[in-house]
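Appendix C reproduces, verbatim, an entry submitted by the partner laboratory led by Prof. M.T., so that reviewers can inspect both the input and the predicted structure.
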Amino acid sequence: MTERSAQVRRGFLGGSFDPVHTGHLLIAQDALEQCQLDTVSLIPSPHAPLRDRAPGASPAHRVGMLRAAVEGNPQLSVDTLEVESGQTAYTVDTAARLRKKYPDDMLFWIVGSDHLEKLAQWREPERLLELMELIVLARPGYELTVPAGFPPERFHLVRAHPFEVSSTEVRQRMDAGLPVHFFLPPVVADYIAKNRLYRD
C-alpha cells in the first residue's frame, strides 16, 4: 500500500465462532498487517443465514470465548451488536449499522475466499460494497479473484497464512475425545473445559 489515510481503518470479521479457533485469529492478524488496519472487531452472529445448523454454544458463551481470546491485544475487540439483536444476521444490515456508528472511518468486511462464490447469494451485495470494502483472504482450494459483476476497486485480495481448520472440525474432535489444544488458544480451551461446553 502507498500513503496512509488519516481516517481510522476498521476491519470486521463476522462468524458463529463456535468455538473461536486459532485460524480466526490468524485471519484477523493477517488483515490487520496486510491491509494496514487500525482495529479488527470480531462479530459473533446468532445464526448465519447461509448455514444449516444453529450454533452449539450459547451466544453468551461464544462472546465469552471471544473476549478471552482477544484479551491483551489492543487492536482486537468483540462487538456484540448481532447477538444482542437476537435476529438472523444479514451482513448488509450489520454493515449499515456500523456505517452509522462510524460515519467518518474506512470500514472493511473480512471474508475468506471460500465465501466469494456465494457473494451473489448474499442480501444486497451491491449495497454492502457501497457501505464497506471487502478484504478477501486466500483459503486453500478456492480461487482468490474478484467475482464477475462486482467492482474490483472494492476488494482487497490477501495471501493469508494457510490454516485448514474449522469450528466444525474442532467440535468433532471434542466429540471423539481427540486433543484440540493445537487448534485453540489456551484461554479458549480453558474456557470450554471450565464451562463444560460441547458435551452431550
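The mean pLDDT is 90. Additional entries are available on request from the coordinating office.
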